[in-house]
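Recall that a protein's primary structure is simply its ordered list of amino acids. Everything else, from secondary elements to tertiary packing, is in principle encoded there. The following example makes that idea concrete.
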Amino acid sequence: MNVLLSYRGRQVTDADVAFIRELIAAHPTLSRRRLSQELCRAWKWVQPNGTLRDMVCRGLMLALHRAGHIGLPERRRVPPNPLAQRSAPTVLEIERRPLEASLQSLGPLRVEQVRRTPQESLFNSLLAEHHYLGYIQPVGEHLKYLVFAQSQVVACLAWSSAPRHLGPRDRFLGWSAEARRKNLHLIATNLRFLVLPWVQVPHLASHILGRMARQLSGDWQRVYGHPLYFLETFVDPERFRGTCYRAANWIVLGRTTGRGKDDQTNRPNRSLKEVLGYPLDRDFRRRLSHVRREEPSHVRADSETT
């Protein structure tokens, strides 16, 4: 079998293309979206939580179409892009009473996951107003948290899917390119961390990071159907020392190249960031380096019809 295309870590062979052509011919009235869903079901191409990898599959089929390997039906409509049309978060008023206290005097903290809850708009508002990077809508798998001391919000954290290529992390884990493609979803990035500016509580930030390390994987499992084994974040050394991460036993992995994921020049075009990581499992390297061998997709599809 000849490999005709590699897309998002999946190698597509001439037998795969023949299967897709037969699928299209058998369903001449289906739209591109419905065809990609049928292909996902045939290949059992699903996320760990069982959701079809519809968008990725649609991109694969479009790449094959543009390369002349298959013929897709005409596009029926262009769906709106919610990210391009998203408005800035509305600033919400909350209690801004200065809070200067010891960590012990705060009492138990409450850490709430607020994505897809009524509290999400408050989370977005606080980041937009008070984080130096502002608010951006995470893509892919992500969770959002508010931290409360009694009824007062004291901090916000956002966690998202990890970037595909990150040299210091990849060298620290020692995983292969194939293992990275298969297991990248088992890592989450701390995209934003904000302790509100009127909150002055020594050791609060490192304490919150410790709480998150105990809670995050279980929340991810409930929402996305798989655990996490490693956390990572970026610190701008021109602005911060990353003291709270170091105090919470995060490991300094190295520095980025400053080129970004879409670099075409091999020259730095942004500030270098320090990369820190935190293992959530003692056996994290083995778990992240393990690659489960599977039969080729066309073999699985054929066996299901017999």
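Residues 3-79 form one domain. Residues 93 and 252 are 37 Å apart (CA to CA).
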